[in-house]
Specification:
Elements (H helix, E strand, L loop, with lengths): L1 H20 L3 H16 L8 H15 L5 H13 L6 H16 L4
């Protein structure tokens, strides 16, 4: 009979130890609910200065609608004919200028 009592005592001690290691789900759920209630009313977004500048560049480019249609057709024709030549120096200068624009430097 004492063996049965000890077994019961050991089982309840084991369950007490295992329960101590388990997170209190009621407390976790309460914290998640509080956090959800605080953040559901408003969402905050923070943009880096680079992202803001890129947005301004995008707005400026999208507002410009001019395109030299004749020049585009000339370039298409010379590409098709295989006579289009790339000015490597001018291309390099334009790439550098573009990069400096994104880095915040004026050319």
């Amino acid at each position: 009979m004492s063996i049965e009592i000890n077994k019961v005592g050991m089982d309840s001690a084991k369950s007490s130890r295992s329960d101590a290691n388990k997170p209190n789900t009621n407390l976790v759920d309460a914290k998640n609910t509080d956090l959800a209630n605080k953040t559901s009313n408003k969402e905050l977004v923070s943009l880096t200065p680079e992202a803001k500048k890129l947005g301004r560049i995008h707005e400026n480019l999208s507002s410009e609608t001019h395109m030299d249609v004749e020049r585009v057709s000339q370039i298409k024709k010379s590409i098709t004919e295989g006579t289009y030549q790339v000015n490597a120096e001018k291309l390099a200068d334009n790439i550098i200028a573009s990069e400096q624009t994104f880095d915040g430097e004026d050319v």
